[in-house]
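Course assignment 3, question 2. Fill in each field.
Student: A.L.
Task: Predict the tertiary structure for the chain below.
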Amino acid sequence: MITASQIYDLFNKEFPFDTQESWDNSGLLIYSGKASEKVLVCLDVTPQAVEKAVETGAGIIVSHHPVIFGGLTEVYAGDVVYQLIKNDISVISAHTNFDRYRYGTCYAMADRLNMEITDTDFDFGLLAECSEMSVQELGWQCKSAFGAATVTLPHKKVNTVFICAGSGSGMKEEIIESGADCFITGECKYHDMLDLAAEDIAVITTGHDNSEKISVDTLAQLIKDNFEDTDVQVYIEDSLTHNI
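Answer field:
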């Protein structure tokens, strides 16, 4: 049996919650106080994730994206938060504090692409190297690894890559200064891509959720390694967006 507070303490040691962004809401967000034999780990606490937790008997959900976000002011019957409380399910969310973790989402992206990490001295993201190839070729690798990819400057040759999971919008100055010739992220604003293209820096986007689903495996493994008798289940939904 394990409690949500035990998982919180583990996470707080590995990627302290006080390192999250000021706008974030990571932490122990719903706490029933009850111990559970099972933990469900997911990207987003959707109605389907709650249904899965109830179905499997998981009394604790661990998510990357916070279940309470953006100034929740009211809760109605049928809402996700209502269903969690009704079913005595605790929720811990580790978002931007986990993104800053040395072995967090960006690290996992580089690992899945078999890239060598060369610099992690950034607020978010990291610098990595790959064998020289065209952006189009690297885009195909990203599609294979994460399920989707769009590219700019497809014929440009690249080997130094800046990686930032989730939303990489607003990071163009840091990317330019890093010396990267390609930027891989979940999503990026069009005008940021234009500005990067003007600096001869290509952009590959995979979709926000596609780039962060791998965080679920890392969070789950951390719990398994530290609480061996706990049944840790990974729940990954289909991407919210689909190519047609």
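Instructor remarks: The chain has two domains: 4-98, 105-209. The mean pLDDT is 95.
Grade: pending
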